[in-house]
Amino acid sequence: MRILARALRPCAQFTRRAHTAAAPPGAGPNHRSILALDGNTIRPFVQPNAHVAPSASVIGSVTVNDKTTVRGSAVVRGDLSLIEVGAHVVVGEGAVIGAGVVRDGVSPRDSAATGLPMKAETSIGDYSFVGAGAVLRGCVLEGENFVGDGAVIGEGAVLGRGARVEHRAVVALGVHVPPAEVWAGNPACKVGSLSPVEVAEFRKEVEETYTITRNHMYEFLPVGTAYLEKEALAREAASAEAESAGEVATS
User: Which pLDDT tens digit goes with each residue over 90-113?
Assistant: First the structure.
């Protein structure tokens, strides 16, 4: 059985092309996927080939790298400190990634005022999969990690490269999960290990999810509900064309 067979779920309304400009206020519904803080001074940075779903929220001091997907209703909230999301990462539907408190460095507000670099208190390494409804705060995933649906990763926890946390498991604050181990339960503990072949297979499967994302990337326009206006204009044009064709046929 493929490692992600139970975890990967189709997402009917995936994601528009991401950008770093926050959408302007409008008269209609005004959910903004990319949201700046502190008078637009603390802004997310999202790579052009990464994708943030229209109903997701990437807020404040967040970096989203190449070919990463933030699915519907997920929240990545960098208000207290920097959050770094690596390349080829999948953040599942309804997952919440919150910033941890600044332990040794500067806050996003201080960085914006002074230009000093920030240290990421929350880091999601390349080729990681964060399941639907998972909650992560102030933790480190070193890369090629699987976090199951509804799992909780506590502040200060570290998942070594290739480590896997099963669905609804709870990794307590400050716990270190060694590389390529499988943990489950509440509180989570070791229940197995992964071979190098299994870790490599998992990485390949996460990489393949970008193909699904790319298939949906043109479903939404960059700002707000403009796609509704586009559809209305298309209907008007089709109606006018039909009327014109009818007039020609009767003449």
Answer: 999 999 999 988 766 767 777 777
